[in-house]
Amino acid sequence: MKKSIFAVLVLILAQPALAEHTAFSCVTNSGKTLAVVDGGSHYRYSYGFPGKPDLVFTNSKGQVQPMCGKYECGVTLTHKGVDYNIAYWGEDLGVTVTKGGKTLANVACRNNRAQISNF
Which residues form the signal peptide (predicted)? Predict the structure, then answer.
């Protein structure tokens, strides 16, 4: 009995450490969801329709550096040599996808609205 109570207490106390929170999320003009989830030691990027994402990958927090300039803030995550720069402050909210300095896509958030938390 004491072992069971101890196991339950450990699980309850571990919950905050396991908790994830959404750092950035928006619905794009195409109706797909763009999201970055803070998983504690990593960020998880996902893009696609709810429940059926086109792309999901993670970067450790050591690989990701939030940056702020004069007019916007953002964070860049990288997957297979492709950079996904999520702008979360400024005039245009969304993601710019680049490879080798060449822009592959600009995906805007619908109505420039997003759910934004701390990175």
Answer: 1-19
Range name among 26-40, 47-61, 84-98 with the lowest pLDDT average: 84-98
User: What does the block give as tokens for 56?
Assistant: 């999901």
d(CA 35, CA 41): 17
Please tell me what DSSP assigns to residue 28.
Answer: B
Would you say how long the chain is, in residues?
119
pLDDT band at 93 (very low <50, low <70, confident <90, very high): confident
Residue type, 22: T
pLDDT given at position 111: 85
Instruction: Check residue 8 and report its DSSP letter.
Output: H
- Tokens read off for 33: 């969801």
Q: Check residue 21 and give its pLDDT.
A: 92
**How many CB atoms neighbour CB 119 within 10 A?**
18
25's CB contacts (< 8 A; 6+ apart) are 33, 34, 35, 36, 114, 115
| C-alpha to C-alpha distances, 75 to 16, 31, 80, nearest whole angstrom | 24, 22, 17
